[in-house]
Amino acid sequence: YMSFEFDLTAPFLPEFSTKDQSEHRHKIRPVQILAPSPSNGFRLNEGGLSSVLAHSAIVNKKVVIISVAGAFRKGKSFLLNFFLEYLYCLQKSQQSDAPLEWLTDDCQLHGFHWRAGAKRDTVGVWVWGEPIMIEAASGEMYAVLLMDTQGTFDNTSTYQQCLTIFALSTIVSCVQIYNVVDNIQEDALQHLSLFVEYGRLAMTEAQRFGKPFQTLVFCVRDFRNPEEYGYGEEGGSKFLQQVLKVTPDQPEELRSVREQLSDCFDHISCFLLPYPGYRVAERQSFRGHVKDLRPIFREEMKKMVPALLNPHALQPKYINGKPVTCRKLVQYFKEYVNSFDGNTVPVANSILNANAKLICIEAAHEAKVAYCRGMDRSTVGSRMMPEKRLLEAHIKHGITALNIYDKCPKFGSAETRNRLLEKLQEDINAELERYKRLNAAKKVTGCASALTACGDSALLGVGLGAAASGTVAATVLTLQTGLVSAGIVAIPISLATLLIIWIYVYSKPHIDHCMDKEPQ
């Protein structure tokens, strides 16, 4: 299912920059990031995903993910090529400060592979081989990533596989385009019930993040009633209102999806599109030439695509209330794929627990960074630091880090949260060993400094080290049992403990010396 015969790194070679993308687009191909596994599940092609997102030129850019999902053989890949053409033309227009021209007579659509006919063409999940850098209305550069998904409910995929693909694309995308033909049937709405259920859970346990999903767009292809509802967004809005209308005689499950769908998405819209023409839909010889499109279809595409992708419309992906960068998206994909094994139907709790784990991972990273920054400030300088002061700094910044972790929202699996908390403690203690080595390598200047450093190391190392590790471990225990205040007051307590140990170790030789002088 995977083929990487093309050069994925072409646009990001040292002699190129992201400004050269439109000129080198012919070197780029889609990359399959999710492929069926022998166990009827899916496996993530992490290397392929990293080849798209992990380059240093874009790794910290906020990412906009546009996904198209829906039934198989309904023109999803064909639709994405319009998006691809528009984005490259928009980028070229921005860089040259020239008027935007796209979908001209001499234009040929290409990019994502598609074909006419009855056999499915896309397997798994594919993304375009590079994010396209677009300057948003705010002036910030976004990395726009296009995602193509396997058509659902064909004659070769299980129900679990279809729902997994649909769930994954909806969760990770900023804009999920739900591609349907002629009408929005009831089964199309029922496929959204998983997200309604998840939305109900998320709004209960994680209200602070707002609605769990961003934009849902129904794209109704080959619409046959333009006299009643005109083509485009305006007619689509009226049509969608009719489809989502709640009536007393509807069964509960039908009413539930309609009533709560708007609570799960920030924005829901609908576009009605005409038939693209015989040459496009029914002839194998069509090669993407715009001149072969029906004029009315072409005009509607020139309205719909900019409405979704213009610089004012682009919004980065948000997960758990925070914008997602290209670097983070790789981690998020891994967690979501792990939560959907493909052998069971995805459930709302799986999504909730995956999001909870992502929050904990993010909080643990922030906590570790805070610890390292604090220790860097405490250990700055070329002179060796007394070990007592080093361990005091470790306790202070270690507990600060653990309290940062504790402030992250608490929902989902407590077991996952505690496991990551223990991992954070291990990481902090490992960092302490690194700071000890760095400190030992520094210069010792002056006799007093030498005596202090050596004395601390020889006399206090064991006692202070045990106290430091014990204090941080005790703080972890208080956080696991929910006693946050104990963690907060642990800093002065730990320093008092250090003082007692220091007095004892310093005084003991003098006491022993006096005892030795007593008359026999």
Automatic annotation (TrEMBL):
Residues 414-441 form a coiled coil. It comes from Haemonchus contortus. One of its GO terms (molecular function) is GTP binding. Belongs to the TRAFAC class dynamin-like GTPase superfamily. GB1/RHD3 GTPase family. CDD domains: GBP. This is GB1/RHD3-type G domain-containing protein. It comes from the Eukaryota. InterPro entries: G_GB1_RHD3_dom, Guanylate-bd_C_sf, Guanylate-bd_N, P-loop_NTPase. Residues 60-313 form the GB1/RHD3-type G domain. Keywords: Coiled coil, GTP-binding, Hydrolase, Membrane, Nucleotide-binding, Transmembrane, Transmembrane helix. The chain crosses the membrane at residues 483-505.
